[in-house]
Amino acid sequence: MIVELTLAPVAQQTRHSLASAAAWLTVPDWVYQVGKLTAGDDRNQVDPYESSRIRGYPDELGGTVYLNHPGFTFSATDTLYVKAIRPAYTFCRAAAGVYGDQSGLTLEADDCVPGAEWVAAAAALEAWYRDPITMEQQHDQLRAQGLARAAMRTARYQKAYFRTQRLQRTFRPYTRLTSAAPQSGWVQ
């Protein structure tokens, strides 16, 4: 799932922990974009990733992902916005809850964002991989056909529900072209 989370920055720091804002975020590569809005900006009118694009890099230390953004500091009234990908199983809810309140489905009335077709196709694919002995009791050709169909269905639903091609990775530091290049030699 592509999600957006917010956190209040600590003034004048160039490193921020995502532990309280996103405990589920445990892989640095899940962070794609970081931006900010000031106290007077309205998120419905201002895109934080375009108006104030923040450069830096995420890293993990002791199970916590940190945003490192050397050269970028914030005031206490700013709001940091982080666009990241999130495992769908961590984005579930109880019948009357909010998405992201729980991981996985516990009760029959619980809900998750991924469509039932996508989940069913992925479950069928997993069954083919996990229990090949039972599946191989059937004819090998039937197993190969079933595996191919399950993989195609899973890929189709994966494309429908998860579109990373729309999500440009901008939270990366500037790099130098050459060591002798002037300050204008910095590129994205």
Can you put this structure into words, describing what you see?
With 188 residues, this protein is of the alpha+beta class. The chain is built from four helices and ten strands, in the order E-E-E-H-E-E-E-E-E-H-H-H-E-E. It has helices at 48-51, 116-130, 132-136, 140-161; strands at 2-7, 15-17, 31-37, 57-61, 64-68, 79-85, 92-93, 111-112, 175-176, 186-187. The strands form four sheets. The protein has a three-stranded antiparallel β-sheet. The chain has a three-stranded antiparallel β-sheet with strand order 2-5-4, with no helix packed on it. Strands 7-8 form a two-stranded antiparallel sheet. Strand 4 and strand 5 form a beta hairpin. It is elongated.
Q: Tell me the total number of β-strands.
A: 10
Write down the secondary-structure element order.
Answer: EEEHEEEEEHHHEE
Specify the overall morphology: elongated
Structural class: alpha+beta
The poorly predicted ranges are 184-188
- Major sheet: order of its strands? 1-6-3
**Roughly what is the average pLDDT, rounded to an integer?**
82
Radius of gyration (Å): 21 Å
What is the makeup of the main sheet?
3 strands, antiparallel
Classify the beta-strand content into a percent band.
15-25%
- Helicity, as a percent range: 10-25%
Total of helices: 4
**Quaternary organisation:** single chain
Cα distance, first to last residue?
A: 26 Å
